[in-house]
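Severity: low
Component: inverse-folding endpoint
Summary: output formatting inconsistent between runs
Steps to reproduce: submit the following structure tokens with default settings.
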């Protein structure tokens, strides 16, 4: 194993960043063995350095540029979310010759072309496995499907809405169920992004972009809010042996791809119907591989950290 540690810097130390920090503290031997060289979590940039966190005692700074300008850091992990200031910081990281790993689905979905171009010009890697379905390696899976003609992609891509739907089945109100999802740490900082479908639309746009090899903008995804689903609809579906789930669907027609997210009925016994919380399900129909399914934990700090660390490890392996 090469002796020189490869430095990692975090932008953001919320639920996901803290889980990455704990993983570096708890399982560095496993991470180093997988990477084939030592990795070192150098520091994290945070908004409020005084705030207490369970993040494995990573040093913190209020200055994101202290991370970007640190010559010890080769890989920048962006877990701030949103587009501002994340977009500028990621571009600045590439300009400084850093590799970038991000969990930021909004940023990747909206700025696909600019980010890929910045990475290409910098000859550095842009990786975003954590942006879709967290621990489920669906980005890697889709990258391996360049030869297929996709027909239909169906996804349960948002844990918060799955959780709300399943809690409404037990008689909880929409607001009670949303409060529980927020307490469990699945929901976005602004949970309207979950319930109004932006989060699922970003993830669906990324998956379609991967399959089509070109940018599919999230504005092209038709969104229906979960707020439109009523308790009567949830009960009505149950009386027919069905459930309401917040589905993401892309139909790859001959001429144009149609994409939508919104509440739809599914069979109660299907993988989607059985999911009750952060479990994501992605099903792809294509010509060469008729029916492929991915499923697993698609939200939460540890599951997202798993995907981030997988990307970090792969960059470190390639950089040996
Ligand atoms: N808010 C998201 C969800 C987190 O509920 O699935 C994971 O992207």
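Observed output (run 2 of 3):
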């Amino acid at each position: 194993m090469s002796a020189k540690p490869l430095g990692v810097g975090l932008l953001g130390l919320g639920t996901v960043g803290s889980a990455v920090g704990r993983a570096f503290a708890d399982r560095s031997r496993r991470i180093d063995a997988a990477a084939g060289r030592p990795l070192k979590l150098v520091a994290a940039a945070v908004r409020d350095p005084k705030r207490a966190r369970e993040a494995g005692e990573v040093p913190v700074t209020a200055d994101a540029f202290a991370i970007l300008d640190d010559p010890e850091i080769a890989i920048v992990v962006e877990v701030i979310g949103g587009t501002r200031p994340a977009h500028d910081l990621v571009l600045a990281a590439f300009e400084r010759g850093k590799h970038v790993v991000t969990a930021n689905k909004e940023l990747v979905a909206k700025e696909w072309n600019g980010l890929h171009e910045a990475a290409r010009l910098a000859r550095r890697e842009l990786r975003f496995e954590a942006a879709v379905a967290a621990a489920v390696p669906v980005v890697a899976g889709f990258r391996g499907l360049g030869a297929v003609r996709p027909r239909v992609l169906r996804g349960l891509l948002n844990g918060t809405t799955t959780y709300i739907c399943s809690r409404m089945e037990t008689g909880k109100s929409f607001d009670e169920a949303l409060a529980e999802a927020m307490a469990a740490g699945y929901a976005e900082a602004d949970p309207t992004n979950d319930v109004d479908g932006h989060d699922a639309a970003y993830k669906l746009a990324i998956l379609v972009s991967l399959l089509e090899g070109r940018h599919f903008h999230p504005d092209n995804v038709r969104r229906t809010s979960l707020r439109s689903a009523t308790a009567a609809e949830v009960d009505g579906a149950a009386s027919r042996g069905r459930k309401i789930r917040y589905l993401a669907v892309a139909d790859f027609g001959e001429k144009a791809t149609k994409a939508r997210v919104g509440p739809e009925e599914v069979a109660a016994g299907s993988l989607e119907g059985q999911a009750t919380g952060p479990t994501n399900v992605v099903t792809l129909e294509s010509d060469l591989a008729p029916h492929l399914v991915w499923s697993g934990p698609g939200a939460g700090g540890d599951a997202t950290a798993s995907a981030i660390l997988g990307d970090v490890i792969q960059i470190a392996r390639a950089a040996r």
